[in-house]
Amino acid sequence: MLSELSNILKITELRQKIIFTLVMFLVFRLGTHIPVPGVNAAVIEQLFTSGNLFGLLDMFSGGALSKFSIFAMSITPYINASIIMQLLTVVVPKFEQWAKEGEEGRKKITQITRYGTVGLGFIQAIGMAFGLKVAIINPNFGNVLIIALTLTAGTTFLMWLGEQITEKGIGNGISLIIFAGIVSRLPDGIFTIYEYVKAGTINIFNVFLFLIIAVAMIVFVIMIQQGQRRIPVQYAKRVVGRKMYGGNSTHIPLKVNQAGVIPIIFASSVLMFPVTIAQFVDIAWVKTVAGWFAWGTPLQTALYALLIIFFTYFYTAVTMNISDMADNMKKHGGFIPGIRPGKPTADYLDRVMTRITLAGSIFLAIIAILPNFVGAVTNLQGVYFGGTALLIVVGVALDTMKQVEALVLMRHYQGFMK
C-alpha cells in the first residue's frame, strides 16, 4: 500500500494540487481563531453544549462558532443557497433551461448562488448578532452592523476558498472545508474521552465499546453510500450511412442513498427551530414546548426519524426526473429488457426508485438517531458522534479518493484503491 501511495508523489501536478489544498486548510484553520470584534467570547462558549443546535453548527464550523470568529457561520449560507437553487431549477423554467445549457448555464447558476450566499449570509449574520446581543460588549446598532458585515465577509471568503480548492486543488472545495471543520474537532473528542477515563467517569471497556460501534457505523455508512441498483439498458442497433451505431449494453446506476445528507439537515433544522426560539424568548409555554423537542427525548427521536424518511422521498423526487430519464432513453433507442419504452419504463424506474429510497431513508434515520443510543450504552456524554458528520466525512473522503485514483490512473500508474 505504501508503494502504491508513493505513486501520488511522483506526479508533479497531483503533488501540487495536494499541497495547495493543505495550504488552504491551514488558512481556514487560522481564520477560525481570528475573533469578531466587540464580542465577549466567554459568554458565547457557555451556549455550546453537546446535543443542541449550537453544538451541531459549531462542529460544522470546526469550532469557529464557539470562538465566534470571522468564520463563525462557516459555509452554511452557501449550502443553503445551493439547495435553494437546486430546488428552484426544477420549478423555474429559466433556471431549468440554464441547467441544460452545459458549462455556460452552470456558470450562470453558480453566479446567482454566490449572490444568494451573500444575501443569506448577511440575513443569518444579523439574526446571530441580535440573538447573541448578550455577548456583545456594546450592543448598539453600529456594532451589530459591523459584526454582521464581518461574519458575512468571513463566509464569502470561505466560499471563495472552496472554489479555489475545487479549481486548483483536489476534490470539491466546499465539501472539503466542511470535512476539515468536522475532522478538526476529533482531538477535542479524544481529549474529552481521556479526561472521562482519568476522572473515573468511564472505564476502558466503555471506550472499547465506543470504538467498536464507531467502526461498525463507518463500515455500514460506506456500504450504503457505495450501494446502488444497476438497471440494465440495451440500445438498439442503428445504421447511419455505412456505419452501424448502438447495439451495446449498459446500465443505469440508482444509488441507495440518492439524497445524501440533505434530509438529515432538513429534519434537524425543522426540529431545532422551537429549541432555538426558546433560547431567546422568556415565555413559559414556549420553553415547555421546546422541552418536548429537546435533543434525545422520545418525541424528538421519533419525529426526527419520520421527518428524515419524508425529506428523503421529497428531495429524491425533486432532484430526480424519472420521466426525462425514460424519454432520453427512448430518444436514443435504449430500452430496459422486458419493459416497453416510454411510460412503462418511467413507471418501472419510479417503482424501483421508490423501493430503493425506502431502504435509503431508513438507513439515514438509523444513522441519525443511533448516536442517542450510543451515548446511553457507552456513558460517553459530551462527545459528538453524529450521523450527519459521519455521512459527510465518509462521503467526502470517498469522493476525494476517487478523484486522486482517476488522476493516478491517467498517468499510467497502478491505482491505490482496491
Automatic annotation (TrEMBL):
| Signal peptide residue numbers | none
Name the keywords, alphabetized: Cell membrane, Membrane, Protein transport, Translocation, Transmembrane, Transmembrane helix, Transport
Q: What cellular-component terms does GO give this entry?
A: plasma membrane
Read off the SUPFAM superfamilies from this record. Answer: Preprotein translocase SecY subunit
Under Gene3D superfamilies, the record lists: SecY subunit domain
Q: Where are the transmembrane segments?
A: 20-48, 68-92, 112-132, 144-162, 174-194, 200-224, 261-281, 301-322, 356-377, 383-401
Where found, per UniProt? Cell membrane; Membrane
Membrane topology for this entry?
Multi-pass membrane protein
One GO term under biological process is: intracellular protein transmembrane transport
Its subunit composition reads:
Component of the Sec protein translocase complex. Heterotrimer consisting of SecY, SecE and SecG subunits. The heterotrimers can form oligomers, although 1 heterotrimer is thought to be able to translocate proteins. Interacts with the ribosome. Interacts with SecDF, and other proteins may be involved. Interacts with SecA.
What the protein does?
The central subunit of the protein translocation channel SecYEG. Consists of two halves formed by TMs 1-5 and 6-10. These two domains form a lateral gate at the front which open onto the bilayer between TMs 2 and 7, and are clamped together by SecE at the back. The channel is closed by both a pore ring composed of hydrophobic SecY resides and a short helix (helix 2A) on the extracellular side of the membrane which forms a plug. The plug probably moves laterally to allow the channel to open. The ring and the pore may move independently.
Q: Which family does it belong to?
A: Belongs to the SecY/SEC61-alpha family.
Could you tell me what this protein is called? Answer: Protein translocase subunit SecY
The protein's organism comes out as Sporomusa ovata
Gene that encodes the chain: secY
